[in-house]
Amino acid sequence: MRSIYTRITPTPTNLRSLTISGFLVRPSTSTSISLQHRRHYTTTKMSTPYDQALSRLSSLQSNSLITSLFDSLPSDSQKDINSLAIPEMKAWMSRAGVTPELISQSGLKCVHVAGTKGKGSVSAYIASIIQQYFPEEKVGLYTSPHLVSVRERIMLGGKEVDREVFARYVELVWKELTETAKKLDGGRLTEEECEGPGTKPFYFRYLTIVAMKMFLGEGVKNAVIECGIGGEYDSTNVLEEGSVTAAVVTQLGIDHVGMLGDTVEKIAWHKSGIFKRGIKGFTLREGKEEGVRRVLRSRAEERGLEELVEVEVEEGWEGVEGGKMEGGPFVKGNMTLAVYAAREHLRKCGVEFEGKFGREGEWGMGDLPEEFLRGLREARLRGRSEVVRDREVEGLEWCVDGAHTEDSLAGVGEWFAGRVKEEEGLRVLVFNQQDRDPSLLLKALLGGVRKVFGEGKRVFTHAVFTRNEEKPAVEGEKRNLTVQRKAEETMKEFDSETETKVYSDVGSAVEQVRLLAAEAKKEGKSCKVLATGSFHLLGAVLIEIDNVAY
């Protein structure tokens, strides 16, 4: 077996060979671990196995650097790399002692979910519904990214996996990869090199292996697996036909252009790569252009789907109230898609439904069994239409959502506006998007709010634009605020009366919001905040406002 890792430091001249050999770039003076992964993980003294696990993960190559390296390559090189993605992932899994064949033999049955918008929420809904039918078992859920704790990515029985279990499987995978490296590459690598991160896959691949290893080790029989990026070449797309009961493609939009393409049709091709022979695929008909639908249908035929079900949201169905995940205009579509996929999975697992719901082609969303309704209400995923009460300022309400595309932010704007429309008080926006044009995204968000408020109405009384770092810069450190200033200008153009502030860290931004809320409370006014634009921003915000465990 050829080596599937490298210890080369990235430079313009070796970038292509580096990425083709597995996207494995070791941290150096020219490459750094992403803030999201490093934030709480680096420690000088390993006090617990969990600390050790976090430290190990922090040494792996981050996803953000992998995607940026990919984006910098010419298109021909990108095609070469894509063609190696699944074979390499299977090789890594083999080195860790968990293969697609082993997963299939274990009896684990999975719903596979891809998409641009709503895939995390849909995945959570599906897992929660399935859990209602197997209350004595632990249904697995694998999603990304995480906001505060990496354990958010792997859930068992509706709860984040506990620290002890998480640490055990991170260490188990690390040791197995190390031992395999010693056997296969010990002749050219030192023992220290075999034991280090240089013989491990990058962050998302590693966690995917950990999740699969954990699901098998903990006896999980039902799981929902969300793709990371795309579908065709995603690390999760190693599942064999016998392991997948249903494939879901949620709403699509332009995202990760370098890896997936610059049109929705190209992106649809990638997302539909999770379609498997002999199963049903589910997608929402609403919101998809005819060109996208043609791509999905063509891929369904090419992949041998039993049927591509284009789900329509029923006009008369009002959704399920009282859920842990609130939502804007997309929530009914997400719930509907989840119901169809969960029903198919349960049917494949031998569950028989009574009455109209059990008859194909006759049931509607008004016929849902109590288990489905309860599953939709109890589903939970951090940072998706989440409402959090501030731990320090009584009555201060934070509405947080990780939306980061134009369509998603427009929906978030409608959701927030629906919560505050009739209230007199402060409406505060906390926003950042460090990697994309903040003006376009902010305009989409504000347009969504105005859709509810009406033209000419004031949207936000205050707006705070911040970078994603939690704490203020240290002495001598300079932080670029160009993005934040641009967003501030856009807000002023939209509504010159909105009071704006720019900060270099989230802690200072949250402190400003709390001061505003405290003053408003003295005057008998409420204060509601919308924090959105980036999952990285939300992670830092939640650390400041909520009692969270890493």
From TrEMBL:
E.C. code: 6.3.2.17
Pathway this chain belongs to: Cofactor biosynthesis; tetrahydrofolylpolyglutamate biosynthesis
Reactions it catalyzes: (6S)-5,6,7,8-tetrahydrofolyl-(gamma-L-Glu)(n) + L-glutamate + ATP = (6S)-5,6,7,8-tetrahydrofolyl-(gamma-L-Glu)(n+1) + ADP + phosphate + H(+)
Cofactor(s) for this UniProt protein: a monovalent cation
Co-factor binding comment: A monovalent cation.
GO cellular component: cytosol; mitochondrial inner membrane; mitochondrial matrix
Entry keyword set: ATP-binding, Cytoplasm, Ligase, Magnesium, Membrane, Metal-binding, Mitochondrion, Mitochondrion inner membrane, Nucleotide-binding, One-carbon metabolism
InterPro entries, per the entry: Folylpolyglutamate_synth, Folylpolyglutamate_synth_CS, Folylpolyglutamate_synth_euk, Mur-like_cat_sf, Mur_ligase_C_dom_sf
Protein residues bound to Mg(2+): S144, E226, H256
Listed PROSITE patterns: FOLYLPOLYGLU_SYNT_2
Any one of the GO BP annotations: one-carbon metabolic process
Compartment list: Cytoplasm; Mitochondrion inner membrane; Mitochondrion matrix
Signal peptide span: none
Main location group: cytoplasm
Record: residues binding ATP: R384, D401
GO function terms (MF aspect): ATP binding; metal ion binding; tetrahydrofolylpolyglutamate synthase activity
Protein family per UniProt: Belongs to the folylpolyglutamate synthase family.
Function: Catalyzes conversion of folates to polyglutamate derivatives allowing concentration of folate compounds in the cell and the intracellular retention of these cofactors, which are important substrates for most of the folate-dependent enzymes that are involved in one-carbon transfer reactions involved in purine, pyrimidine and amino acid synthesis.
PANTHER family cross-referenced by the UniProt entry: FOLYLPOLYGLUTAMATE SYNTHASE, MITOCHONDRIAL, FOLYLPOLYGLUTAMATE SYNTHASE-RELATED
Protein known as: Folylpolyglutamate synthase
Organism name: Podospora fimiseda
